[in-house]
Amino acid sequence: MSGIYWGLTVMDLMGQLHRMNRAEITEFIKSCQHECGGISASIGHDPHLLYTLSAVQILSLYDDLSAINVDKVVEYVKGLQQENGSFAGDKWGEIDTRFSFCAVATLALLGKLDAINVDKAVEFVLSCMNFDGGFGCRPGSESHAGQIYCCTGFLSITGQLHQVNADLLGWWLCERQLPSGGLNGRPEKLPDVCYSWWVLASLKIIGRIHWIDKTKLSTFILACQDEETGGFADRPGDMVDPFHTLFGVAGLSLLGDEQVKAVNPVFCMPEEVIQRLRLHPELLS
Amino acid sequence: MFILLWIGSRLRFEDTECWDINEESPYWWIIKGPIVVSIGVNFLLFMNIIRILVQKLNPRLIHFNNSSHYRRLTKSTLLLIPLFGTHYMVFNFLPDYFNVSLRLCIELCLGSFQRSRASTRYRLTKQYGAAYLTICHLPAMHGRVKLKSTAQQEEEKKKEREKKLKVYVATRDACFSKRKEGAMDDEALQLTQQLLSANPDFATLWNYRREILMHLETVKEEGEVQKQYDAELAFLETCLRVNPKSYGCWYHRGWVCGRQPRPNWSRELSLCDECLALDDRNFHCWDYRRMVVKASGVPVDQELQFTDRLIGSNFSNYSSWHYRSTLLPLLHPESPEPPAPTPACAHPPTNSPPNSPHTHSHRVCEEQLLKEYELVQNAFFTDPNDQSAWFYYRWLLGRAEREEMISCVYMSREGERVVVAFSRPVNAQAVGLMLVLDGQLQRVKWRSAPPSARHTPVWICELPPGTISDINNEHNLTVHWTEKHTQRECALYTGRAESWCRDSATDQELFRSELSVEKTSVLQSELQSCNQLLELEPENKWCLLTIVLLMRALDPLGYEKETLTHFQKLKEVDSMRTNYYSDLCSKFMIENTILKMEYAEVRVFSISEKNLTTLCHLDQLLLVTHMNLCTNQLSRIPPQFSMLQCLEVLEVDDNVIESLEGLHNLPKLEEVSLKNNQISKFSQLRPLASCPKLTRLDIRGNPIARTDNIAAELAELLPSVTDLML
Ligand SMILES: [Zn+2]
């Protein structure tokens, strides 16, 4: 399911969405919705918030949310919120700020954010804030660019970005840029195209995107493109995959590449789709 | 044993001089043999490390456009040569008397490298260790090197893949159909085990296993259940050895321990230790460890010792520093009654409720703070380029979070306006703000500045017409913040057009360190140490930035000149982050200007020729009437500028301004001078139309001044402007 979202979003950003088989994809998503309302990675798999968000994102690209039972999705997401405001990924109860993001992003796309206890959810995400201004998976977990993206995205959707220490977090994020121009996800790690997206989107959300060297980053991302297949890899010379292709293309869009449509840093979808849905996720200036 | 044998043969056969000279003898190889072997082994190790290094660098195509990186790499490799005694390889097979003087010379040169600091050696082992690790543990979609291969190889590979896939799909289908049938047996466990060993991210299969295990709980004896779960843990351990970064494995392990009748937490702890020994940054393992610690009640001080140990063995461990930052405030919380700075004016009584979760203090008591400084200093003296310790140090230097309170109340007869500023952004419509004028509760509508913000420190309202407009009346205003049980009063005397009540930035110690005055001597000595380090490493950006921060904590105004020099240097040595340093420097210069303004007790804010790139702390400038920002590098007047409710005159000549967004609804603004900026479109001037008192506008030297018909268009947009300069 997430694979389809990655692929389709790239196609949409490149203005090529019409080349995909829409009917088949919609049919597939329908058949992945379960009795409980949740959506699974594929047929026969169990439902999970991660894939529920991916499915809702795909249907938003197609402007076809009514293809699934929206009320049931809302019920499913609502049912996963815990006493302390956090969200479980599925009924087995793994807690992670990624799932908090999935929950509010799904509901925002469906226009049903008020279905959950937003204040409690915010309180939980803020309890995962660290000494460096970043966020981890759970309270006490180390900061990680992917998690920071989820948490700043979450706070943007819920209109709580003023709670972020933007100067401190922005410093940590811009220190992710390495001499190669690429960004890593944590101190002392290798650069990677997907982290480039997570760091870049987070910086965009907190209004500090100019703190990194844009020219060097775009050189790095372009060096990760494979000349034979056109896809992007995590690092130059590695195998390409749709995941890194999306984040490479979306990163270039945030850097202002004009061959690509403008991307929304919070939802990682074309800006025009977010505007069509009349969503205005907060961005700091 | 070798040494004994060697000494023996030496003594027996060649006891001449100091054993450094020998002639051709049949026993030569007995003596030389072990040496040759050990040098050979060392050489192999050396070559292997070089091979790994090359492997690690090559496919990644890491661009070193910075010559210092080449230098460092060359230096590391050169250092490796004496470290492994590789140079002996050259002489190994030559008889020892060959060109003694040349030999001595080379050996002395290379050997001198061996005397370099222990930390360098330590750094090297760290680097090569990391090389091993990244090669051994690659996550599913990361780090798979794309290999070029021939068509035939491709074909063979494809066949093999298809074969594997077939087996995988068959097993998966078998699993799914068993689950559909509701089978909860050993065979199902077996099949899922097979699949999960290959793909631990197959979440649905973990779910199936959990269903089966829960079922078995109901049919088996407790002892059996315990055993069943032990087996599950053993299986998980093999999975984790292959895939130490699988979310699914770690979650399942925690789940199993939670279900097991008698969980063995100490075994879990040692598993974590083992895992962290392989990769001390594995955040899955760290999180799991925290869970185990919590479940088994390991005391906090023991955990702090654990980080002591890890940091002691490897300073460059961001994860350990992070863990420390979460433990210290628990173990050594900031004293409940912080030494209050002697207030210049009486603060209103504030009974703030216990800290809410998102304002909970991450601060540490002073005594412990001083110990931490020492630890961090050890770390960054050992490896000044390792960022972990520096990040931690900056946290230690941080300020306490500001108390939530009303920092200013301003009222003006003109417009019958009340402006309230808070110490942090709030949503006044939601926090229960009450306004009482002369004992009467007023119904007012709060609007935010900037207007689009839901949360902002500045809120504005208008009183009903005629309430305070008569200059002969005296009024008393109280603003109640019911949610925080706090309030603020403001008196407007007869004959006065406006009035305010506020805490100044100097009273609030806004821009200072949190250490009490007696401890500034400690900061002073910290600054000294950092300066020493800077002498050794004059290009070290971490050191430069930390010195700036220490200077600010000690005496922001006194060190202003040095601060500017250091920022200049920072932009040179770390050019990728120029914009960050420019913004930070701007922030510090603005803070200094606020302090100067307050010491002078004026309402004029003037900061020119300081290379400002951004404007901040605008909520502190609520009362400013005149502002001079000329000759900086500002590209916009940000939305927050609309907080400046008292501003009358604004000069921003000689900047690069393109956006005037923040010049919105400024009720007292009369004059704006925008000479030599980048205003090129008519729409960029539109916000000015919302400033009712604007009479004088200077836009000379902007691209827009040259457009046709601009005067007429502006006259229509800004009818109040009588003095327009184009
Ligand atoms: Zn990646």
Automatic annotation (TrEMBL), chain A:
Binds 1 zinc ion per subunit. The keyword Metal-binding applies. CDD domains: GGTase-II. It catalyses: geranylgeranyl diphosphate + L-cysteinyl-[protein] = S-geranylgeranyl-L-cysteinyl-[protein] + diphosphate. One of its GO terms (molecular function) is Rab geranylgeranyltransferase activity. It is an enzyme of class 2 (transferase). Its EC number is 2.5.1.60. Its cofactor is Zn(2+). Residues 1-269 form the Prenyltransferase alpha-alpha toroid domain. Pfam families: Prenyltrans (PF00432). Keywords: Metal-binding, Phosphoprotein, Prenyltransferase, Repeat, Transferase, Zinc. Belongs to the protein prenyltransferase subunit beta family. Heterotrimer composed of RABGGTA, RABGGTB and CHM; within this trimer, RABGGTA and RABGGTB form the catalytic component B, while CHM (component A) mediates peptide substrate binding. The Rab GGTase dimer (RGGT) interacts with CHM (component A) prior to Rab protein binding; the association is stabilized by geranylgeranyl pyrophosphate (GGpp). The CHM:RGGT:Rab complex is destabilized by GGpp. Interaction of RABGGTB with prenylated PTP4A2 precludes its association with RABGGTA and inhibits enzyme activity. Interacts with CHODL. Catalyzes the transfer of a geranylgeranyl moiety from geranylgeranyl diphosphate to both cysteines of Rab proteins with the C-terminal sequence -XXCC, -XCXC and -CCXX, such as RAB1A, RAB3A, RAB5A and RAB7A. This is Geranylgeranyl transferase type-2 subunit beta. It comes from Coilia grayii (Gray's grenadier anchovy).
From TrEMBL, chain B:
It catalyses: geranylgeranyl diphosphate + L-cysteinyl-[protein] = S-geranylgeranyl-L-cysteinyl-[protein] + diphosphate. Residues 1-126 form the G-protein coupled receptors family 2 profile domain. Pfam families: 7tm_2, LRR_4, PPTA, RabGGT_insert. It is found in: Membrane. GO terms for biological process: prenylation. It comes from the Eukaryota. GO terms for cellular component: membrane. Residues 332-361 are annotated as: Disordered. Belongs to the protein prenyltransferase subunit alpha family. This is Geranylgeranyl transferase type-2 subunit alpha. It comes from Coilia grayii.
